[in-house]
Design goal:
InterPro entries: KR_dom, NAD(P)-bd_dom_sf, Sc_DH/Rdtase_CS, SDR_fam, SDR_oxidoreductase. The chain is of the alpha/beta class and 284 residues long. It contains eight helices and nine strands. It is 48% helix and 14% strand.
């Protein structure tokens, strides 16, 4: 993948009217790049970009679960800008509940957006990138795509799926000049933990008081998160500009520390289970 240096780059970004997506669009437009920005409401997106020069913006009202609509959005982007250099699959939302409290509809809705929506974008954009023998896919996961906490089971399950998908994708497309990166943010000062972006179960049980306490703590958290979304946006751009960074890139000191702890815990589990693991081979 060769990031363009002789012209503005063209970015296709999903989930752009709030959070990290909005910060990324603002940073890209400020730097003079061209941005196709998907959202469920272009009016909300344009309000969020008030005061920003939107000359190089293509706002696209798209339901990512609608495969045909996603394909049209990719086609519209190529028609407007001549190609796509970077895709950022960012759309998503949080969900806090015990596994037992999570309904079938909740699970399907989460996976439709986080996994099927991402897959729709990839199916639509990869032929264009392969033809150009260039491109970069950046899939926004979470540190909760690498490790899990109680109450985050559904969100973690979807992000784990995104990580597995991206790891396979990276190996598949490397020979076509395309790069793939997993971004794992920690807590950033966005509206992710507000009612706009955090879903809760319709019914709960009194069997999990710890999770209820955690929900209250998270709802009170906005404004105290350590991560700066503008710096996160700049970091994502740097990932694309560099082009050859690690497969997984944590964002935030909290994310980096948690990832290190996960590696240590996993190494300890592997060591503890080694004897039983090798005992299951055929005897030589």
């Amino acid at each position: 993948m060769t990031y363009p240096t002789d012209r503005p780059a063209t970015w296709f970004v999903t989930g752009t009217s709030r959070g990290l997506g909005r910060s990324l669009v603002i940073e890209l437009l400020t730097r003079g790049h061209r941005v196709a920005a998907t959202t469920r409401s272009t009016d909300r997106l344009l309000r969020a970009l008030d005061g920003v020069d939107t000359t190089n913006l293509l706002p696209l009202e798209v339901q990512l679960t609608d495969e045909a609509a996603v394909s049209r959005a990719i086609d519209d982007t190529v028609e407007r800008f001549g190609g796509i250099d970077v895709v950022v699959n960012n759309a998503g939302y949080g969900y806090l509940a015990a596994v037992e409290e999570t309904t079938d509809a909740d699970v399907r809705a989460m996976f439709d957006v986080q996994v099927n929506g991402t897959w729709n974008v990839l199916r639509a954009v990869l032929p264009t990138m392969r033809a150009a023998r260039s491109g970069h896919v950046i899939n926004v996961s979470s540190i909760l795509g690498l490790l899990s906490f109680p109450g985050w089971g559904l969100y973690c399950a979807a992000k784990y799926a995104v990580e597995g998908l991206t790891e396979s994708l990276a190996a598949e497309v490397a020979d076509h000049g395309i790069a793939a990166t997993i971004v794992e943010p920690g807590y950033f000062d966005t509206d992710f933990l507000t009612s706009e972006s955090l879903a809760l179960p319709s019914t709960t049980t009194d069997a999990y008081p710890g999770i209820r306490d955690m929900v209250e703590a998270h709802l009170a958290m906005p404004g105290t998160q350590p991560g700066d979304p503008r710096r996160a946006a700049a970091a994502i751009i740097a990932i694309a500009e560099k082009g050859d960074g690690p497969l997984r890139q944590q964002l935030g000191s909290d994310s980096s520390q948690l990832a290190s702890s996960k590696v240590e815990a996993l190494a300890a589990d592997i060591e503890a289970g080694h004897e039983l693991a090798v005992s299951t081979d055929y005897s030589s």
